[in-house]
Structures are given as C-alpha cells and as structure tokens.
Rit1 N-terminal domain-containing protein
Amino acid sequence: MAAAAGSEHAAEEGTLSIYKAARRIKRRESTLYNALRSVADDAAFVAEIAALWPALPLVANLRCGLWYAQPRSLAATCYFKSTDGHAGNWG
C-alpha cells in the first residue's frame, strides 16, 4: 500500500498543473522583444479601430493604455482599474 501511495505522489510531481504550466510559458515568453512587440501590435490595433470609426472618441486609460495612441488623437483620458477575478481583494 505504501508503494502505491508513493507512486501516486511521484506521478503528481511529474504532472504540471495548469497554473504551473502557464507560469512556465509566461516566463519563457517574457522577453523585452515580446513586450515591445505586444505594445506595437496593440497600438496598431488601436490606430486601425480609430480609423474605422473616426466619429467615436478615443479615450486612453492612464493605468495601462496611454502608450497605445498618439496623444494628439486622444479625446480624453481616464483612470480605470479592473478588478475582474479579484473579488473582495481591494488592496
């Protein structure tokens, strides 16, 4: 019985949880190039959408979106913090 329990524990250690696998991928993908490429891609997307709907105001979030648009193209800014997935975790 002890051998079976030991082999189950070894099998669990050999299998990554989804969380651990995602963290490993994130660490592998977190390079300066990928970060800058992501910002450039997001900025291109914002520019494309702004061009498709020029009558809509372009508003940048000061927390995490100001660098995605040229300052002269902004109608306004805001300060918004999402709490998605962090219910009751206001600190």
User: Anything to note?
Assistant: The beta strands are 59-61, 76-78.
